[in-house]
């Protein structure tokens, strides 16, 4: 924003002028030697000035002051450079009326605020034409600034050309709106601004406002529509600096205000709101300036690798349950939320003055005309300019339940809230006290909002933005704007919960039924989806506490659900769902679903079909709400498999047949499918596999693998592969047939990593004649099957080269690791757990650590060196954290039971991870 008082430059203008004059006297102003000396002087001046400003910022964290000081530094350099160029290098003894030049700051520089590495936007303004003199001065200044290393955005125009460009381009018009004279001819600049006001600004405020708000919406869509993205853009993101600047542009254009104080004078903000405006502005500038200095470039995205350092510089400390970086980011998101509130306030004021048109919104209002009409049977509220508003300022004082009722009406009738009503709500938050929290009518209305699939997500977000949701449910207030410092969760906790509710609403309305056919089939059969809506709103409500958030969240639910009018049975079911809301995902992604012990263990936890149905839908909605790209079809396939296998146990359909009977039945069914094979071929194939193969591989895969074996033998190929893109699952399955090798899975994993293929599952079998029949599933990279098949062929070729020793996987992965640095911001204490309690036949090794390129290759290589056979591998990645699970036996097919050997396995795997904390991690035995 424009500064109201001069800010002192960190360098002395007189000293710089004297140094420039000395260079001119010593070398001759226009000489090559003088040019180099000037460039060296300006480089040193900028370095000295920036270092002084940086030290001041680190000492005080005054962000706006830092930006103003950097602008003042630039002013001093530009002023002195202009004087040197116009008076010493290109002096004119008798200038004509055309030989006048005004240097004008525009953009951020025009607002007299600059981030450390911002572009410097300059307008070289001439009265009516450019002369040889003004061209020479302009080129000298520009090339000198570029040689110094500054990024200078510039335009060279006459007054008339500037007005014409501003008339045609709203971005240029905005730049002129913020124009500030730096040096040179003042009359030329004054002429521009006088004509700009008279010819462009007068009478065009609605046009400008609409354009700026549309531009804001497009910007938000481009950088992220939510202000709660965990790696926000400080400058362009929703709730960032550009939103505050947009408000000031609108106010300045409409009312010709020149400072933030004038926002109050124009009646757009109250004095308290102005203080909030300034507080938000200063904080965001502090973050942005620190961000530039730390990154040493014009970086606007607050990425994970820089958040912790900024938290340290800004003085945040760790708190029980929250890291310092999480406390910093919570403050950031609360500021972004306040910026959103200020936006609504200014828009309300503009709309009331008819400077900003109100959109037509919904079917409920199509028959209504006029700006203000009463709502039938609801005297406390009116329809004002096609939005719901309060009938008078005492509505919430007269009946505090109206604080909830207004949102219920908005959801029921699909009416948007009037910004004035939102402003009054914010000012009346103290009305939400314990009495209102316990009020039966208020809680009934809240449940109506929550279980309205058409509008629940939108209304809940409005309640959260207004501060109502956190006051009405104080436990929810604790997680408002709370971020989790990891790469898995894309949103703050409160935004994740609201999006989870929205995912359930989308499922109920059939919008995502094709993505989740089983959940869509089960949802209408539930007795009451209210249970799920409540569960989804509360399932992460205890995040940020120094205890398991699932257990603590269940405790919160037992306190809240009776308040919502739910019975004891409903309350206990919601509490159980919250306590177990991660269980189904964990079993599906990290356990072997072909192992009968897995299914029995999960069925023992679930115990009933009602719980199973609820838990499946809860898990789907939870994963979908984590962020874009987190849900994929492969996870859906795993969840469906776990569901169907558990359903068989709960309904008594699993475990009745003996192992030998199941093997015999599987062989009989495959024989029937291979009717075109000769009896000898079928007999030989059936004798090729061990019993485990028949127990774990489904019939369709048996058929495909039988054809793979047959074709490989007919062509006498020792190495053969089958590639199957799976569009719905979002994955591609690759099956390899090759002579067995103790490190075959390791080489396959390395080949996939070298080919940038992410493995999510691996199944390993050995045939009776000593061949490996291994299947891996990799995440899909291309939309079209043909493209995915070609990618699969490249992966297979890499595997074959690795198996034949024609490519060195460790060298390839080392090069890739040097290029991949995003996870460096995180530290995770590695853990290796061994247990024989999760399977009757296998030892289960679970490795949890920081993900990196080639990790699976190194782990599987270590397991092979330990003389262990891997039956299956399950790869689950949660942002920067990976949980890899291996079902293994020793070389004779037994579980690993000896404690000494288990210790050796842990030590070797920790070495493979690359940790110095081996001894500490070895003591953690599951």
From TrEMBL:
<dbReference type="Pfam" id="PF08335">
    <property type="entry name" value="GlnD_UR_UTase"/>
</dbReference>
<keyword id="KW-0511">Multifunctional enzyme</keyword>
<feature type="region of interest" description="Uridylyltransferase">
    <location>
        <begin position="1"/>
        <end position="374"/>
    </location>
</feature>
<keyword id="KW-0548">Nucleotidyltransferase</keyword>
<dbReference type="InterPro" id="IPR013546">
    <property type="entry name" value="PII_UdlTrfase/GS_AdlTrfase"/>
</dbReference>
<dbReference type="Pfam" id="PF01842">
    <property type="entry name" value="ACT"/>
</dbReference>
<feature type="domain" description="ACT">
    <location>
        <begin position="733"/>
        <end position="815"/>
    </location>
</feature>
<dbReference type="InterPro" id="IPR006674">
    <property type="entry name" value="HD_domain"/>
</dbReference>
<feature type="domain" description="HD">
    <location>
        <begin position="493"/>
        <end position="615"/>
    </location>
</feature>
<dbReference type="InterPro" id="IPR003607">
    <property type="entry name" value="HD/PDEase_dom"/>
</dbReference>
<keyword id="KW-0378">Hydrolase</keyword>
<dbReference type="InterPro" id="IPR010043">
    <property type="entry name" value="UTase/UR"/>
</dbReference>
<comment type="similarity">
    <text>Belongs to the GlnD family.</text>
</comment>
<comment type="function">
    <text>Modifies, by uridylylation and deuridylylation, the PII regulatory proteins (GlnB and homologs), in response to the nitrogen status of the cell that GlnD senses through the glutamine level. Under low glutamine levels, catalyzes the conversion of the PII proteins and UTP to PII-UMP and PPi, while under higher glutamine levels, GlnD hydrolyzes PII-UMP to PII and UMP (deuridylylation). Thus, controls uridylylation state and activity of the PII proteins, and plays an important role in the regulation of nitrogen metabolism.</text>
</comment>
<dbReference type="Pfam" id="PF01966">
    <property type="entry name" value="HD"/>
</dbReference>
<keyword id="KW-0460">Magnesium</keyword>
<protein>
    <recommendedName>
        <fullName>Bifunctional uridylyltransferase/uridylyl-removing enzyme</fullName>
        <ecNumber>2.7.7.59</ecNumber>
        <ecNumber>3.1.4.-</ecNumber>
    </recommendedName>
</protein>
<dbReference type="InterPro" id="IPR002912">
    <property type="entry name" value="ACT_dom"/>
</dbReference>
<dbReference type="GO" id="GO:0008081">
    <property type="term" value="F:phosphoric diester hydrolase activity"/>
</dbReference>
<feature type="domain" description="ACT">
    <location>
        <begin position="844"/>
        <end position="923"/>
    </location>
</feature>
<dbReference type="InterPro" id="IPR045865">
    <property type="entry name" value="ACT-like_dom_sf"/>
</dbReference>
<dbReference type="GO" id="GO:0006808">
    <property type="term" value="P:regulation of nitrogen utilization"/>
</dbReference>
<keyword id="KW-0677">Repeat</keyword>
<keyword id="KW-0808">Transferase</keyword>
<dbReference type="GO" id="GO:0008773">
    <property type="term" value="F:[protein-PII] uridylyltransferase activity"/>
</dbReference>
<dbReference type="InterPro" id="IPR043519">
    <property type="entry name" value="NT_sf"/>
</dbReference>
């Amino acid at each position: 924003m424009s500064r109201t008082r001069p800010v002192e430059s960190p360098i002395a203008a007189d000293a710089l002028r004297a140094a420039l004059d000395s260079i001119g006297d010593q070398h001759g102003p226009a000489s090559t030697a003088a040019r180099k000396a000037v460039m060296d002087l300006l480089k040193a001046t900028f370095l000295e000035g920036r270092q002084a400003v940086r030290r001041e910022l680190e000492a005080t964290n005054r962000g706006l002051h830092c930006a103003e000081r950097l602008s003042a530094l630039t002013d001093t350099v530009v002023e002195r450079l202009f004087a040197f160029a116009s008076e010493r290098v290109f002096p004119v003894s008798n200038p004509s009326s055309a030989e006048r030049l005004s240097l004008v700051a525009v953009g951020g520089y025009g607002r007299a605020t600059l981030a450390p590495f911002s572009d410097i936007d300059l307008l070289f303004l001439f009265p009516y034409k450019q002369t040889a003199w003004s061209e020479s001065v302009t080129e000298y200044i520009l090339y000198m600034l570029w040689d110094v290393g500054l990024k200078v955005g510039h335009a060279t125009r006459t007054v008339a050309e500037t007005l014409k460009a501003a008339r045609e381009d709203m971005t240029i018009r905005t730049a002129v709106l913020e124009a500030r004279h730096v040096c040179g001819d003042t009359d030329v600049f004054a002429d521009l601004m006088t004509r700009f006001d008279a010819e462009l600004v007068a009478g065009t405020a609605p046009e400008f406002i609409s354009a700026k708000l549309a531009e804001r919406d497009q910007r938000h869509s481009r950088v992220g529509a939510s202000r709660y993205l965990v790696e926000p853009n400080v400058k362009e993101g929703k709730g960032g600096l550009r939103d505050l600047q947009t408000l000031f542009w609108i106010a300045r254009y409409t009312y010709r205000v020149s400072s933030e104080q004038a926002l109050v004078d124009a009646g757009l903000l109250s004095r308290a709101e102005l203080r909030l405006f300034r507080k938000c502005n200063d904080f965001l500038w502090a973050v942005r300036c620190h961000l530039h200095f730390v990154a040493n470039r014009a970086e606007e995205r607050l990425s994970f690798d820089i958040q912790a350092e900024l938290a340290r510089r800004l003085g945040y400390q760790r708190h029980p349950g929250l890291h310092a970086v999480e406390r910093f980011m919570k403050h950031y998101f609360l500021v972004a939320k306040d910026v959103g509130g200020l936006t609504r306030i200014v828009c309300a004021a503009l709309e009331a003055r008819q400077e900003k048109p109100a959109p037509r919104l919904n079917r409920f209002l199509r028959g209504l005309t006029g700006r203000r009409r009463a709502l039938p049977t609801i005297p406390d509220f009116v329809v004002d300019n096609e939005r719901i508003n309060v009938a008078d300022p005492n509505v919430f004082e007269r009946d505090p339940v109206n604080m909830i009722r207004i949102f219920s009406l908005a959801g029921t009738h699909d009416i948007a809230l009037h910004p004035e009503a939102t402003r009054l709500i914010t000012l009346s938050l103290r009305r939400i006290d314990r009495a209102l929290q316990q009020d039966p009518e208020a809680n009934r209305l809240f449940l109506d909002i929550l279980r309205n699939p058409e509008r629940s997500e939108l209304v809940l977000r409005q309640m959260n933005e207004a501060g109502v949701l956190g006051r009405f449910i104080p436990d929810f207030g604790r997680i408002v704007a709370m971020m989790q410092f990891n790469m898995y969760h894309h949103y703050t906790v409160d935004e994740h919960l609201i999006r989870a509710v929205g995912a359930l609403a989308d499922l109920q309305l059939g919008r995502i039924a094709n993505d989740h056919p089983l959940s869509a089939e089960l949802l209408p059969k539930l007795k009451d989806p209210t249970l799920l809506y409540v569960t989804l709103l509360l399932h992460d409500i205890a995040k940020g506490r120094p205890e398991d958030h699932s257990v603590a969240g269940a405790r919160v639910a037992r306190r809240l659900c009776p308040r919502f009018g739910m019975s004891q049975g409903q309350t206990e079911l919601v509490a159980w769902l919250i306590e177990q809301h991660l269980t189904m995902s964990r079993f599906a992604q990290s356990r072997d679903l072909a192992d009968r012990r897995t299914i029995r263990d999960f069925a023992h936890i679930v115990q009933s079909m009602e719980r199973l149905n609820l838990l499946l839908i809860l898990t789907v909605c939870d994963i979908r709400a984590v962020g874009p790209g987190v849900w994929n079809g492969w996870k859906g396939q795993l969840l469906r498999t776990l569901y169907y296998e558990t359903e068989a146990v709960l309904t008594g359909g699993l475990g009745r047949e003996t192992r030998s009977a199941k093997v015999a039945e599987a062989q009989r069914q495959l024989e029937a499918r291979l009717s075109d094979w000769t009896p000898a071929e079928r007999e030989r194939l059936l004798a090729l596999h061990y019993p485990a193969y028949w127990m774990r591989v489904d019939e369709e895969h048996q058929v495909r693998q039988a054809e793979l074996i047959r074709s490989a033998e007919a062509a006498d190929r020792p190495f053969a592969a089958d590639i199957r893109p799976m569009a719905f699952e979002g994955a591609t399955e690759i099956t390899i047939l090759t002579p067995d090798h103790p490190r075959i899975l390791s080489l396959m994993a390395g080949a996939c990593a070298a080919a940038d293929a992410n493995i999510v599952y691996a199944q390993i079998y050995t045939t009776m004649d000593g061949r490996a029949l291994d299947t891996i599933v990799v995440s899909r990279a291309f939309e079209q099957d043909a493209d995915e098949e070609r990618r699969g062929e490249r992966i297979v070729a890499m595997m074959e080269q690795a198996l034949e020793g024609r490519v060195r996987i460790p060298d390839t992965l080392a090069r890739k690791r040097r290029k991949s640095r995003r996870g460096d911001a995180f530290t995770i204490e590695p853990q290796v757990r061994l247990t024989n309690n999760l399977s009757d036949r296998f030892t289960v090794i679970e490795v949890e650590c920081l993900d990196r390129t080639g990790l699976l290759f190194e782990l599987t290589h270590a397991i092979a060196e330990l003389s262990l056979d891997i039956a299956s591998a399950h790869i689950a990645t949660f942002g920067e954290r990976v949980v890899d699970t291996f079902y293994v036996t020793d070389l004779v097919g037994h579980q690993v039971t000896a404690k000494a050997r288990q210790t050796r396995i842990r030590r070797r795997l920790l070495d493979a991870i690359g940790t110095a904390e081996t001894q500490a991690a070895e003591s953690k035995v599951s």
